[in-house]
Amino acid sequence: MLDGRRIAGHYCRPNSLRFGPMAEPSTSDIDALVGPATPHFAYQLRARVRELIEELPADHPVRRYGEEKMRLLDDLGHASSKAETGGRESQERIGWETVPSSAPADDPLPRRR
Fold first, then answer.
1. Number of domains forming the structure of the chain
2. Which of 4, 97, 102, 104 has its CA at 20 to 30 Å from residue 25's CA atom?
3. Is residue 56 domain-resident?
4. What SS3 state is found at 96?
């Protein structure tokens, strides 16, 4: 119970955690969300970036940066990897057609209509 009673030998006060207002978001905050992104979680992370920047003015540099990263996450949602580093595998390679999804984020699969 969290009603001011002892739990496992510790006294718990109800509503004892209070958070102050968050500082203005930075590009580092956005990078921390986007950095480990994978196609599977791209849209969840995109929603978090949107929430982070939604109260910033339209011309705010962090908002513009966040919107750019949201576009990357949208592309990543239709891809199989970010493919930001390293060389590309040739589509002429034997067996390429057996790769289920080989689209990188900068050249994602076509969107369904």
1. 1
2. 104
3. yes
4. helix
